[in-house]
Amino acid sequence: MSRVFEQIQITSKSLRGNKLDDDPTREVLVYLPPSYHHNPTKRYPVIYLLHGFGGTPQGWFSNTENEPSIHLTMAKLLKEHKIEEMIIAVPDTRTRFTGAGYQNNAIQGNWLDFISEELPAAIEAKYRCKNGPEHRALMGHSSGADGVLKTLLFKPGFFKQAVAMSPAHINADNPSFFKQLYQTNQSQLAAAADAKLSVEQLDVWQHLLCNRFQQILPAADHPPLFCRFPQSEQDWQGLAESAFQRLIPKLEQQLAGITLVIDIGKREETYQDCLTLVEQMQQRDIDVTLFEFDGGHVDHMGKSLVYVLTWLSQVLMQTR
Hints:
Layout: E1 6-11, E2 25-31, E3 46-50, H1 70-79, E4 87-91, E5 94-95, E6 98-99, E7 104-105, E8 109-110, H2 111-126, E9 136-141, H3 143-154, E10 161-165, H4 175-193, H5 204-216, H6 233-240, H7 244-251, E11 259-265, H8 271-283, E12 288-293, H9 301-317
Parallel strand pairs: 3-4, 3-9, 9-10, 10-11, 11-12
Antiparallel strand pairs: 1-2, 2-4, 5-6, 7-8
């Protein structure tokens, strides 16, 4: 049986020296198309896939029906002649606080530089790729979809096609979202700040709050959380200012020339917020298409992968 994916490692300068002691050497799972080892002159476009908060790269190579399975979905679509061959690279973005915040900062490291610069450079150096932004696509699910949107907004020019599947940070332009979440978890976070609880004893929601606070309210000299907690209305507004609904009016020019799809489930809590975000983009003539499905945040990933990969193949092959 042939290997489902190759495993490589990339040692990142962008992640080196982060305050969380996260390993700057990152594993990347790489799916190679069937002809790769038999056609030594052929080059392929590349899709870069960002997993969500609490997810893993391996989770995208499931052998279970209806779960996300890059290798099985690609095999089916290729057999049906619905797509062209592509390379797909899935980096491991897990951290001590569950997952990457997909930002550049001194606490967590420069994740956007890693995704946009170092990762494509390493893949294009090792594999027979069609090089350049027009032959790359970026996709992600949940917080990985947030990472897609952040990369497009803050690191323009590295990807020309993108898919954000069920983005998570689209209902947070109201400070009350963070206030409620913080109030629910305040005692555990305070205990961790005082070293009465370890970072590992915090749950995923507490890690998520720390992740956001490290970005907006960093405190490099305050281990182990390396952030301060919100104290003023200005702090809460600062957290809300990082929401995509607030960023689009300021950074809309960064999305010029980008072809974007946002995929959202009708039973997701963020469904209406997502419709609002897409409408906001379309009003600014941003090239965004909305895909909708009848499902929730994680129960449709495998099915979504079918039409997402089909769409990406179509747009990537237009740049031959």
